[in-house]
């Protein structure tokens, strides 16, 4: 299938706005379910399992989603993905309303939503290339990061307040409604855009997946970048999973929500800067600098129990992250032909996020059975490291954060020495279509 789409930053903004609203809703549910699980079990493992089941199907099935994004109308795939994601939440909500829900019900529901998210994500990424000119890629990436930041900026503080005045069921209803808004936004641009389809020879799915795989592994610079990002996501997976249990060990859900929202102002500011000021070069240098700042802030999160210091470290971390994501995104997007981007983003999605899967699988065990026992009264490191960062519940997670942050800095320093990463900036013309008359080919 081939489709001809007129590029339009305005139409991109409509889709982006729908995704912004749905991201806020997703953040509300993610925060609330994490707090719910921790309060029920008082273990990091239950929170880690929710995170694992939320992302594992999405990551494993993303190559298939990428193939579908190249074969069919990408906007239709986004609609199907959002509908299926909402259905998973409806399942959880219906059990909550009819009886005593168990944790495994939540695992099943979030996993079902994750399956359909695997359809939506590659189509959304590839659609951005359809709708944007090449010189708008960094600006579009900045706005996408802004939408992503809403999960941390608005959702936690809203969820923290809502949990104190209403129920988790109401919060899930709000999330379902936000998915409907995202679907409506896609329908709006679908009606206003003329799409011409031409039939072409259809390969089987494995052939398309292999093409995506070949496209990634034959571009050594892109493959190396994906490996680096996967190593970084391994360490970031611990932070995403365990920041809640660490803070809830000495504070409450409302304070946790306030921390996440206030520190996420850093991501908001950075995303706005990237969206407003167009970057056209030195993405590799920005990537390295961003990784160094992320690693430093990551380690600082574990140094103290002072909530204001932790908020400062969170602000520093989240203000650095958009620059890492934008640089990696543009370096890949500029080095992969547009007609292959759906399947390529699917392959990159699973490869770059393997680190998350491993971290989610290990985080609960490492926190509850390895690091936390080291840092309680009488623990093996209580009289040494504990004299610096403190002892008691959650301080083992703090130690894990410090170690992980140092490894992220090490990865950044190694990346700065790799010539193949720098060479990606010199190969930035491949994503441009041969006819530059405002048309993108799918």
TrEMBL record:
Keyword Cytoplasm: no
DNA-binding among keywords: no
Major facilitator superfamily (MFS) profile domain boundaries: 11-423
Membrane protein topology class: Multi-pass membrane protein
Ranges annotated as spanning the membrane: 12-38, 44-64, 76-97, 170-189, 221-238, 258-277, 284-301, 307-332, 344-367, 396-414
Source organism, top-level taxon: Bacteria
PROSITE patterns reported for this sequence: MFS
Pfam families documented for this protein: MFS_1 (PF07690)
Record key words, sorted: Cell membrane, Membrane, Transmembrane, Transmembrane helix, Transport
Localization: Cell membrane
InterPro entries according to UniProt: MFS, MFS_dom, MFS_trans_sf
Name this protein carries in UniProt: MFS transporter
């Amino acid at each position: 299938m081939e489709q001809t789409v007129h590029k339009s930053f305005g139409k991109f903004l409509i889709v982006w706005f729908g995704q912004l609203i749905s991201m806020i809703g997703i953040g509300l549910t993610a925060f609330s379910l994490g707090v719910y699980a921790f309060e029920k079990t008082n273990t990091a493992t239950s929170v880690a399992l929710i995170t694992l089941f939320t992302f594992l199907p999405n990551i494993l099935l993303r190559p298939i989603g990428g193939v579908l994004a190249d074969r069919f109308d990408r906007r239709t795939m986004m609609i199907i993905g959002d509908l299926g994601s909402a259905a998973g939440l409806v399942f959880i909500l219906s059990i909550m309303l009819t009886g005593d829900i168990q944790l495994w019900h939540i695992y099943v529901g979030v996993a079902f939503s994750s399956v359909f998210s695997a359809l939506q994500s590659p189509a959304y990424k590839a659609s951005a290339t359809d709708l944007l000119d090449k010189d708008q890629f960094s600006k579009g990436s900045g706005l996408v990061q802004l939408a992503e930041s809403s999960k941390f900026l608005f959702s936690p503080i809203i969820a923290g307040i809502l949990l104190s005045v209403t129920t988790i069921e109401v919060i899930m209803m709000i999330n379902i409604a936000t998915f409907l808004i995202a679907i409506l936004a896609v329908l709006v641009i679908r009606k206003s855009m003329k799409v011409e389809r031409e039939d072409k020879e259809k390969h089987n799915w494995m052939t398309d997946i292999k093409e995506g795989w070949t496209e990634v592994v034959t571009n050594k610079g892109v493959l190396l970048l994906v490996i680096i990002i996967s190593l970084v996501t391994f360490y970031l997976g611990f932070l995403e999973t365990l920041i809640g249990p660490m803070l809830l060990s000495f504070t409450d859900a409302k304070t946790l929500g306030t921390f996440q929202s206030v520190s996420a102002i850093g991501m908001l500011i950075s995303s706005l800067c990237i969206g407003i000021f167009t970057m056209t070069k030195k993405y590799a240098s920005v990537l390295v600098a961003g990784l160094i700042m992320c690693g430093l802030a990551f380690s600082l999160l574990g140094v103290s129990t002072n909530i204001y210091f932790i908020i400062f470290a969170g602000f520093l971390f989240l203000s650095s992250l958009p620059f890492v994501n934008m640089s990696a995104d543009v370096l890949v997007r500029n080095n992969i032909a547009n007609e292959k981007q759906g399947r390529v983003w699917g392959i990159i999605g699973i490869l770059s996020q393997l680190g998350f899967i491993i971290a989610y699988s290990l985080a609960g065990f490492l926190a509850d059975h390895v690091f936390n026992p080291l840092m309680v009264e009488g623990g093996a490191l209580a009289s040494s490291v504990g004299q610096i960062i403190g002892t008691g519940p959650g301080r083992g997670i703090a130690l894990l954060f410090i170690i992980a942050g140092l490894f992220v800095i090490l990865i950044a320093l190694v990346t700065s020495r790799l010539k193949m990463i720098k060479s990606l900036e010199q190969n930035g013309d491949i994503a441009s279509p041969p006819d530059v008359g405002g048309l993108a080919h799918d």
